[in-house]
Amino acid sequence: MNSLRIKPKEYKGFAIRKAVVGPIATNVYFLINTETKEVLVADPGAEGPLLVQYLKNNEYKPAAILLTHGHEDHIMAAQELRDAFGCPILCHEAEVPLLADPQMNCSVWESTPCTLSADRLLKEGEEVTLAGMTFRVLHTPGHTAGSCCFYFPSYELLLSGDTLFHGSYGRTDLPTGSDAQMLASVRRLLKELPGETIVYPGHMDRTFIAFEQRFNPLAEFV
Questions:
Q1: pTM, two decimal places
Q2: How far apart are CA 62 and CA 85, in angstroms?
Q3: Where does the chain show beta strands of DSSP type E?
Q4: Average pLDDT over residues 182-186
């Protein structure tokens, strides 16, 4: 098998869709149980009315909102979705201070500074089943102190937020960021996850672990 030509597999009863929103092109992901039409929404960063309309047009039922971290470009539509559908917001427990502070979450750059509270706080290694889908919480600080990735082993996919990008990794110069933690987090993902794992990042195109093991700038430290 050519490890650089892995394509996403299709799974019965499951689909993933992407919308790109906001001024810095943030990826919003919809993980869909096609049998029940329940959906997990990851990182709804902007354009709340359009996201709400998309969900309603397709008769999707949001079961939860997953936040990989609390920067404004990943959270600005979360409250609107929670209000529209009554679905809980989940994030890592270490991200609470950043969500609550417009300076730290960078929403002071917006016309309307944002604060947000989570309904459920997640811990490293926790396994969560929602909408018939199970994911594992991987705490991956570096971009922020509470950045995390969501690993779905049954679907061989990782929601990596702003930790791991295609041939790159997240910036570390914003509040609670850390170069050392970013290096450790990327090293962990490249060492622990199977090469065929498809990576769905917070910006830009998808990638996969085997590719990053060979070409990511931090791969030499693994």
A1: 0.95
A2: 7
A3: 14-21, 26-33, 38-42, 61-66, 89-92, 120-122, 127-130, 133-139, 148-152, 157-161, 164-165, 168-169, 198-201, 207-208
A4: 98
pLDDT score of 1 = 32
Closest alpha carbon to 204 in 155, 165, 172:
165
Q: What separation in angstroms does the CA of 80 have from each of 6, 44, 59, 171, 191?
A: 36, 9, 17, 27, 37
Number of domains in the chain: 1
Mean pLDDT of 107-130: 94
Q: Say which residue, 5 or 188, is predicted with more confidence.
A: 188
- For residue 200, give the CATH number of its domain: 3.60.15.10
Rounded distance between C-alpha atoms, residue 46 and residue 64, angstroms: 17
